[in-house]
Amino acid sequence: MHRLTYIPLVVVLGACAVSEDNPTRTTESxxxxxxxxxxxxxxxxxxxxxxxxxxxxxxxxxxxxxxPAIIDTSDGYVTAGEYATMFRxxxxxxxxxxxxx
Length: 101
Known about the structure:
The strands form two sheets. This protein has a four-stranded antiparallel beta sheet, with helices on one face. The protein has a three-stranded antiparallel beta sheet with strand order 1-2-7. It has helices spanning 2-15, 80-91; strands spanning 24-26, 32-35, 39-43, 46-51, 56-58, 65-66, 77-79. The chain is an alpha+beta fold. Helix content is 26%, strand content 26%. The relative contact order is 0.16. A hairpin with a 6-residue loop joins strand 5 (56-58) and strand 6. It has one domain (17-91).
């Protein structure tokens, strides 16, 4: 019987898991850059999925969108502003299952 009282507590604590940020570096000019990797990427609680092969990004529940052409990912890093742009564009995509049928 006591085990049943712990189940809600475990569920609540599991829902509060914080995603770990991607590694960052600071340039000589003081700009923070975030390392992009294939798959899930997180920075300041903003998570997206990056596909280098297709040049697309997506967030959970949304369709993939092409990365803006002005963002250079050749060295594997993007600035915090570029990451925010990618996240915004991915959030503006159609939801999975929405749109024309």
